[in-house]
Amino acid sequence: MSDDAHLRVLRSPRFQELVRRRAGFAWTLSVIMLVIYFGFIALVAFAKPLLAVKVGGGVTSLGIVLGLVVIVSAFVLTGIYVRRANSEFDALTARLKEEVQ
Amino acid sequence: MRRFLWVSALAAAIGTAAHIGLAHAAGALEGPVDRQALNLPAIIMFFLFVLGTLGITYRAAMQTRSAADFYAAGGGITGFQNGLAIAGDYMSAASFLGISGLVFASGFDGLIYSIGFLVGWPVILFLIAERLRNLGKFTFADVASFRLEPTSIRILSATGTLVVVAFYLIAQMVGAGKLIELLFGLQYLYAVVIVGILMIVYVAFGGMKATTWVQIIKACLLLAGATFMAFMVLWRFGFSPEAMFAEAVRIHPRGDAIMAPGALVADPVSAISLGLALMFGTAGLPHILMRFFTVSDAQAARKSVFYATGFIAYFYILTFIIGFGAITFLMTDDSFYTAGAGGVINRIGGLLGGTNMAAVHLASAVGGSLFLGFISAVAFATILAVVAGLTLAGASAVSHDLYAEVIARGRANEQKEVRISKMTAVVIGLVAIVLGYVFENQNVAFMVGLAFAVAASCNFPVLLMSVFWKGTTTRGSLIGGFLGLVSAVAMVVLSKAVWVQTLGFPQAIFPYDNPALFSMAIAFAGIWLFSKLDNSQQAKSEQAGFDAQYVRSETGIGAASAHMH
């Protein structure tokens, strides 16, 4: 790619929109994942009795439920990102490519 | 009783890997083990696996012509297939045995490790995967050296890669030898030689295509086996987890304590440091990063992480059920235990072969000796697949980074480069056999932890900073990356695992179990500081080159040709 071409992309409003939307989305999801994970680790380190609390009237503890929630949330977050990226962001990228090539 | 005799020594064998949080990758078995009688069903099933994978290797070898074929399977792996292969890299024998054993022994605590291994994936997806695919060709050094001075960055990246591969490989080889000695009744040296030769054949002849398919087949076998076990466990409880938990609490010696966190995560600093190493170490493992170049575009790279996260999450939920299943199936059955002094049976540590054999005993309890053989064969296949991936990553670092860029200065032709890579794979395989033999009776459990720490403290910061921060210069990356590498290694050597347990000093100098919190900070600060201090002409042109890199990393414009042929 020539210098000229990448400058054209860089200045394109569509490129700036793509980057702004995707960066905001990706960093938000990353922060959510970090908060969920290190929040869980903090509970394990500092609030063991809380995680031992029983839920649903049986022996199942809050810790096990939350642990499964962390596992499922990791999968769900990747799903949310892939869904939006494969539709919205890829469409934007495709239009951008048409525009500059 | 008799059918369990051949597994009776694995307590020492699986070692402490699971308990220091390295279970998923380790396979680090330690200490002397008793060789067992030949296990025929397991050997036959493993033989079939080898035959099948050699057939695939032959086909892959026929189709492998260009460098893109060899390093990246011609970019022809689909997102779904790559997701399975990535998951395969992650679901090792020690992960299966170690985490289910941990759940068997202490319940909830096993879940803490599963989660740590999983949560790195979403972050890799959000920040790394597409950019890697858009910028790189065959190795992550392609990405880091996109606008930085290639020679020195490739030396740094190749060093990081080879250090990670070496420690990981030693742990795997020793683990393989011990596990196979136990599960199959083969001599340690034979086991190590068989693993070494098979991985050379897969990599040198079949390249990435064969390596990927070996990984995919193994992932399917392991998922199928684990699914069957979890199904049989839940079936007994009418598919009610609550009923399973209630029964486990009733018969487990620790009673209700298995439903809450125990003593496993002691001090918060170690917990956070370990969490960082697991989360970001994954994003710096060269054999994992290479997998993003095997798919056709950024969209497929994204999909592969999505599928991989799903498979890995599913697998860890299965191991959790298997661990609880082992409590309910095994703890009331005396035939799975050896009695201690005075005929008293310890319901946890007294398990034949130790707690890490919980899943193996459960396989026998729910599926008989034939299924036991199947699970043993899958464990062997798992180790083979992982070492093949490591060998390919190491060989690529030598041929694509060191030879093509540093020695031949970019003037090497493709054929020669691939030939060098194949020769390197043979050398790595032979060295691995020798190291596996030399380290037979050494403590290797810390080596996977070290590999993760180095990946998180050298490879990952260099990669992330070169892609995200315009100010990064070659000098900054080089100094910061090497500081991260050296500090990670130094802190592991000074920590309890090496300083006290291996070298025999009375007191650890570095007080925490994992260095990542500190060594990652050193690496990032080093890259930032020495980039800021770098006022050279070269630094200015590197920073000016960021825009072109930025456009390509965000859009893939200019990258599409990387795999076309």
TrEMBL record, chain A:
GO terms for cellular component: plasma membrane. The chain crosses the membrane at residues 24-47, 59-82. InterPro entries: DUF485 (IPR007436), Inner_membrane_assoc (IPR052959). Keywords: Membrane, Transmembrane, Transmembrane helix. PANTHER family: INNER MEMBRANE PROTEIN YJCH. Pfam families: DUF485. This is DUF485 domain-containing protein. Coiled coil: none annotated. It comes from Neoroseomonas soli.
Automatic annotation (TrEMBL), chain B:
Its main location: membrane. Gene3D superfamilies: Sodium/glucose cotransporter. It is a multi-pass membrane protein. This is Cation/acetate symporter ActP. GO terms for biological process: plasma membrane acetate transport; sodium ion transport. Residues 1-25 form the signal peptide. The chain crosses the membrane at residues 41-61, 82-105, 111-129, 155-176, 188-207, 219-237, 271-293, 305-331, 370-399, 420-439, 445-469, 476-495, 515-531. It holds the Pfam family SSF. It comes from Neoroseomonas soli.
